[in-house]
Amino acid sequence: xxxxxxxxxxxxxxxxxxxxxxxxxxxxxxxxxxxxxxxxxxxxxxxxxxxxxxxxxxxxxxxxxxxxxxxxxxxxxxxxxxxxxxxxxxxxxxxxxxxxxxxxxxxxxxxxxxxxxxxxxxxxxxxxxxxxxxxxxxxxxxxxxxxxxxxxxxxxxxxxxxxxxxxxxxxxxxxxxxxxxxxxxxxxxxxxxxxxxxxxxxxxxxxxxxxxxxxxxxxxxxxxxxxxxxxxxxxxxxxxxxxxxxxxxxxxxxxxxxxxxx
Length: 262
Prior knowledge:
Rossmann fold
């Protein structure tokens, strides 16, 4: 399949039915990786503190408390899936964080409430993208920042686990837009693209622990892979781990920094 040919869209993942129970553990990052992300995000945000932020599509609150620590808050984690939000409220509490029921197309905050919005691997779950862009513009202060950490169809990352699940390439090409498509949604609404960055992602480090987390299937692409491929892929992964031939390689990820209309 050509990377620039838009595939047929996939059915959305229902996080109230799947993933919310094991998501926090399955997608956990070590403290130094979280701190690294905060440093990177901080380079694109105003220097003054505190900053009011929105973690849009906050899931189980993987980043929300760290955002409050780094930038002062208050910080609002907005998440549509009740199960994910309940997990965040149980496991990712912070005095400056409030978890709110909402979605990108309907953010439960007043106009010009936020200095910044973070969308971390959540943009591809948004179904009505023009409405979401308008809502993000509404809640951001003039010239506020949107940091959109995403995957783009024209640069699918070659994760260390990718070769064990070969259908994941085509699934992710169907799941994600191109960078140009993503930028066009925001630029058409008056956002200005400040920077597009390909960053090196932190290594997992402990591959045995990484495999155990991966087996929780807290990766949305796994919802679209057949059970036979999943079983066979994990069996080959286990064999390579036992033989000492499972290796981790450098991988890059994308994020775009937008400035809201002034």
